[in-house]
Amino acid sequence: MCELLTAGGGNPLEQFVLLAKNAKGAAAVELIKQALEAPGVYVFGELLDMANIQDLENSPNAKYLTLLNMFAYGTYKSLVESGGSLPEMTESMTRKLRLLTVVSLAEQNKLLPYNLLMSELEISTVRELEDLVIEGISAGVVLGKLDQKRSCFEVDFVIGRDIRKIDMGTIVSVLTAWCDNCDSMLTNIETQVDKVNKEKTDTNNHKAALEQKINDVKQQIKNQPSGEDGDPDSRMETERMDRRDKKAAKGKGLRGSSKSGGSGSFWKQ
Length: 269
Hints:
With 269 residues, the chain is mostly helical.
């Protein structure tokens, strides 16, 4: 049995599931004990579904089936509330159930104060609590950081626990709502993309129309006659020459008047 349990592959529980096909009565009880103590086994749903395991419900060993259910779905508080009606647990079983309780708490809150953990796990010292969390980190059950200054455990990752069949409807509803939200978001994104593409097309068309108008105006200017009336530069040059000639003529007239007035005054004297 031990050789088989240590020689397995990726799923540690799979070996127990295979053995459960032929284990009945006391053998099924022993199999449950080994599964609860085995390192690396933190989910038990497949083992619970085995017919030989379920047959324990109506037998004198029903309390072992109850214990297995507690490890699959319960917490350390469940053990305390059982009032001693469950089989005696080993130290390794107790530590595993406490780790599974940490997983359940971390599913609800990613920041777990030490006082909350110590209360839920019924641990009296911080050192014992931190040793338990470090063990869980080493086993890959939880990942995170122990913050001794703030006295809390910051959770980054936890494994998934077994899911009760009665909870499947709730999970399906949550996933359906999530899918609906994704579809709505995708529709909004597609609408925004269409809007942006339309605005880009309108901008390009407007730019092309402006460029065409500019080209038309340039062509019209080129097609105008190059004479005085047609060429704006020629008209401006002509106007400047006219103004210069008028100024020159006016200046000559003033000089001539000045000369004539001066000689008349001399002879009058």
